[in-house]
Amino acid sequence: MYRIERDDFAIPHVTANSLEDMFFGQGFATAQDRPWHLEYDRRRALGTLAAVTGSPAHAIADAFARRARIADSARHGYQRLDAASQAMCDAHAAGVSAALADGPLSSAFATFDAPRPEPFEGWHVLATFIIRHLNFATWQKKLWNARVVAALGPAGLHAFHLGRQAVPLIVPSGVVEMVGAIAPSQLPDGWLDALKPLGLSLSGSNCWAVAGSHTASGHPLIAGDPHRALESPNVYYQVGLSCPSAGIEAGGIAFPGIPGIPHFGQNADVAWGVTNAMADYQDLFIERLTDVGTVLDRRVEIVEVRGGESLTVECLVTSHGPVVVGSSETGVGLALAAAELTRAGGSLAAVLPQLQATSVAELDAALATWVEPVNNFVLADRESIAYRTAGKVPVRTSINAWLPVPGWVADHDWQATIA
Question: What is the pLDDT of residue 199?
Answer without folding.
Answer: 37
